[in-house]
Design a protein that fits this description.
The complex is a heterodimer.
Chain A (H helix, E strand, L loop, with lengths): L2 E4 L13 E4 L4 H11 L3 H5 L10 E5 L2 E2 L15 E6 L16
Parallel strand pairs in A: 1-5
Antiparallel strand pairs in A: 1-2, 3-4, 3-5
Chain B lengths: L3 E6 L5 E2 L14 E5 L1 H7 L2 H5 L29 E3 L1 H7 L3 E6 L9 H15 L4 E4 L3 H13 L3 E6 L4 H8 L4 E5 L3 H14 L3 E2 L5 H6 L3 H9 L7 E5 L4 H15 L9 E7 L4 H7 L25 H11 L3 E4 L1 H15 L5 H15 L8 E6 L24 H7 L8
Parallel strand pairs in B: 5-13, 6-7, 6-9, 7-8, 10-11, 10-13, 11-12
Antiparallel strand pairs in B: 1-2, 1-3, 4-5
Classes of the chains: A alpha+beta, B alpha/beta.
């Protein structure tokens, strides 16, 4: 089972210049662990000292922000596309919707 | 020449030379322009600024450009209007409107874009680009035309017609993306990585955002070199609010203003209020939301500088208010009918939030208050569809008019 992962320029030093790599994992967290095995150091770039995904990184599965899915536990299936994108800024936290009006 | 020292990560403090980078290598935090403040302090003065051009470029020493000839359509130095009528309605003795709806492309974005496109030329880019909810798109297209650069613009496909036309007229390549602004922004970040374009609000963001500081400097200068007590600011991606605080602080630090106690309050539509929500719930980082609001220019569910917006409100002792679509329309009408200023939906949000803050006693009747009106009403006429009185229609005869007179509202 393989998913494709788009790597931002900032992380390409770790992937030997590759902008897109193929990797495996049942969840986003597992995918990152597997990437770490191949590209040592990538995990430390994505997680902070407390083991949380960094606040200024956004991860998308098939163009959906994982904060709207199940965060690092978001399940992956064959053929999914994962994008790692600098957030420029912006928080990482569980999702809550704003209602219209009120 | 400039007083720029370099770029610095707002999170971990790592420094970078002046270059088109926008994110810290180490922690992905956003980068910010650093100036040589001691040198600036001995160079800058109220008199020097007052002798400058009647545009935002009178504050050139506080902007991160090297050239003496910026890409300039005449943005900035817009009117600060004393709003006696609106003040009377709301119960404020000293209320002002900073009317940025009268910029060259009718929104405050001309300030940030003028800096960004100037910087794009300095860095040697041959193409500019942006992701936009509609105000930025027109501004980037216009400044690109002025600079003679090709331009690619990415917008959500459902934008208001006035904003689409107001962009296309300048001849950019306009790409309408079937998705929300947040999706357009994510796509644009990936495109920026792949193509060597100057995305003004992505890879030029540290420079771009500095232009927003001029909205602080101008208000101070126009108040006779005094800072207001309270400002109310619309929040979308949060560039403006997070740079306003920097602008007010710089003005104080450089001695342009003697006293600073300006509270900064944030205004958002209830259908997209991640910053207001974070402040209410005492969170540091706004949680992303899916926008559903009439105020398309504020429909950013994952604001790039949301964290800094929360910080700006908290550190200045300001407040945050979210208002309904109904209140937005009433806010637009109230501003137009009391002060003769027609603003877009974002301005309706700001006026409505001001009203709430006054009603709740969070802005006192004697506070010298400024609201930032950042965009022009003619861009979002759809928002008023079915919400205004219809015109009377008559035949071109005096008899026809006289037949109508009994039905007309009485003149005074």
């Amino acid at each position: 089972m393989a998913v494709s992962v788009r790597i931002p320029v900032l992380l390409r030093a770790v992937t030997g210049g590759a902008g897109e790599v193929s990797a495996e994992g049942r969840t986003v967290a597992e995918l990152i662990d597997n990437l770490e095995a191949r590209y040592p150091g990538i995990k430390a770039r994505l997680y902070d000292e407390e083991g949380q995904l960094r606040r200024f990184i956004n991860i998308y599965v098939n163009a959906e922000d994982i904060r709207f899915l199940r965060g690092a536990d978001t399940p992956l299936k064959d053929g999914d596309e994962v994008s790692i994108v600098p957030a420029i800024a912006g928080g990482l936290a569980p999702v809550r919707r704003c209602g219209r009006g009120g | 020449m400039s007083f720029v020292k370099g770029l610095r990560c707002r999170e971990c403090g790592r420094t970078y030379p002046v270059s088109p980078v926008y994110v810290c290598d180490a922690c992905f935090g956003p980068l910010e322009v650093q100036y040589d403040y001691p040198a600036l302090r001995s160079h800058i003065s109220r008199e020097r600024i007052e002798g400058g051009p009647p545009t935002m470029w009178r504050y050139r020493d506080l902007l991160p450009v090297e050239t003496e000839e910026p890409v300039d359509l005449g943005a900035g130095f817009t009117p600060l209007v004393r709003a006696r009528n609106l003040g009377r309605v709301l119960g404020l003795r000293e209320l002002y409107i900073k009317n940025d709806a009268v910029n060259p492309t009718y929104s405050y974005k001309d300030r940030v874009v003028s800096v960004a496109v100037t910087k794009a030329l300095e860095f040697g880019f041959d193409t500019v680009a942006c992701a936009s909810t509609g105000n930025l798109s027109g501004s980037v297209a216009a400044h690109a035309a002025r600079a003679g650069l090709p331009c690619y613009i990415f917008i959500p496909a459902d934008l208001e017609r006035g904003k689409v036309v107001g962009t296309l007229i300048y001849g950019p390549t306009l790409v309408a993306v079937r998705g929300t602004y947040d999706q357009v922004n994510r796509l644009s970040t990936e495109i920026a990585d792949r193509y060597g374009w100057a995305f003004v609000n992505i890879n030029l963001r540290p420079y771009y955002s500095e232009g927003a500081k001029t909205l602080a400097f101008e208000v101070i200068e126009q108040l006779g070199w005094e800072a207001p007590d309270h400002v109310v600011v619309p929040v979308a991606g949060a560039t403006l609010i997070s740079k306003l605080i920097k602008g007010y602080q710089e003005a104080y630090q450089l001695g342009l203003v003697d006293r600073l106690r300006t509270k900064i309050s944030a205004a958002q539509p209830a259908g997209c209020c991640p910053v207001v929500d974070a402040i209410r719930r005492n969170l540091d980082h706004p949680e992303p939301v899916r926008p559903n609001t009439l105020a398309r220019s504020l429909a950013i569910g994952n604001p790039a500088d949301g964290y800094y917006a929360v910080k700006a409100v908290r550190t200045t002792g300001g407040y945050a208010e979210a208002v309904t679509d109904e209140e937005i329309v009433e806010g637009i009408k109230l501003l137009a009918r009391t002060e003769g200023i027609f603003t877009e939906t974002a301005g309706g949000v700001t006026v409505a939030a001001l009203k709430r803050l006054v009603e709740q006693g969070k802005i006192g009747p004697d506070e010298r208050t400024v609201i930032y009106i950042t965009g022009n009403g003619l861009k979002t006429v759809e928002a008023l569809e079915g919400r205004l009185e219809l015109p009377y229609t008559i035949e071109p005869t005096l008899a026809s008019f006289e037949g109508l007179v009994p039905a007309l509202p009485k003149s005074a």
